[in-house]
Amino acid sequence: MKKSAIAFITLPLLLLNISCEKGKAADAVNGTEKSDTVKTDTTEKTTTLTIDTVDFNKRMVALSNNDTTGRWPVKAPYPLPGALLPYNRIIAYYGNLYSTRMGILGELPRKEMLAKLQGEVAKWQAADSTVKAIPALHYIAVTAQGAPGKNNMHRMRMPFKQIDTIISWAKPINALVFLDVQVGHSTVKAEVEQLEQYLALPNVHLGIDPEFSMKNGERPGSKIGHFNAEDINDAIDILANIVRKNKLTPKVLVIHRFTQGMVKNYKAIKTVPEVQIVMDMDGFGSKILKKSTYLSYIYREPVQFTGFKLFYKNDNKKDWKMYSPEELVKFTPKPIYIQYQ
């Protein structure tokens, strides 16, 4: 996309000491895993039951909105039993507790925020009764920084007590928790590994943001960064190992994207039974521009599942109006992860 086509992009820093806005262009599986032991005269075999593949395939076709190009649904290994997708649509609130301007999570008081989130979940459930809508809190656990910091990494890791707070907030409404990472000059592997104790919890999942991955030493925010397939595969490997080690159901990995260059060599991104990948169409703008971005970078470069981000303020500026659930469920493919900022 030419620069003029995304002229409305701003490149803010998610700094803790600067007020800013992040502006960009824009039913669980019924079966459970069981093992049956089959004995013969000489051997003993263990057979692991998997998901209902007929039901899974039917749901994936429905999610693809009957796409005829062959892109959707994406061919990938079947997930482990207990997978969240495509059985649920995740409705997430995004933000950081240190700032009221990074997102709705952190902007509103806890009780008001949770009530508003539950209201959005109800709207999505009404818009598509075939998929269960469930809430999530998507917390920025590592923020990119303009200053290099003590480790010269241009990133700041949030205190674990803040993550504990978010997890405690999620419990009363049975919400998922996503921990989001902006690596700055660090790496996906280094930042995700330090969150392993939380990712080992059944309801905690991961988000990674290519925008602030500055591979050539630039200051975060001075240009749009990127991840390559190797970066994303590092996150997938860590999550898959956590799932296997702790005998968990699959983890969801959300990858933000609003330009073509933010994700390179997408065809080399691996798909495994332990991890479900969501390419999330990030960014604000007019409906026409956001749909165009979704078609250009999400629909045309399929990985596994898709997401869509909505901005309460920036999608409602000028003559713009935020997409409704009823409008978004008509997209091809239907987004299965929705994030509000």
Summarize the amount of helix as a percent range.
25-40%
Radius of gyration (Å): 20 Å
Shape: globular
| CATH topology-level fold name | TIM Barrel
Low-confidence stretches: 1-47
User: What is the number of strand segments?
Assistant: 13
Structural class: alpha/beta
Strand order of the largest sheet: 3-4-6-7-9-11-12-13
Q: Give the class-level CATH name.
A: Alpha Beta
The major beta sheet can be summarized as: 8 strands, parallel, barrel
Kindly state the mean pLDDT as a whole number? 86
Short description:
Helix content is 26%, strand content 21%. With 341 residues, it is α/β, with parallel strands linked by helices.
Can you describe this structure?
This is Lipoprotein. The chain is an alpha/beta fold. The chain has a single domain (3-15, 58-340), classed as TIM Barrel (Alpha-Beta Barrel). Helices cover 26% and strands 21% of the residues. It is built from nine helices and 13 strands. It has helices spanning 53-63, 104-107, 110-127, 160-170, 188-193, 196-199, 229-246, 287-299, 325-328, and strands at 35-39, 44-48, 88-95, 132-144, 155-157, 176-181, 204-208, 227-228, 251-257, 263-264, 275-281, 305-310, 337-340. The strands form three sheets. The chain has an eight-stranded parallel β-barrel with strand order 3-4-6-7-9-11-12-13, surrounded by four helices. A two-stranded antiparallel ribbon has the order 1-2. Strands 8-10 form a two-stranded parallel sheet. A hairpin with a 4-residue loop joins β1 and β2 (44-48). The longest helix is centred in the middle third of the chain and has 18 residues, at 110-127. The radius of gyration is 20 Å and the shape is globular.
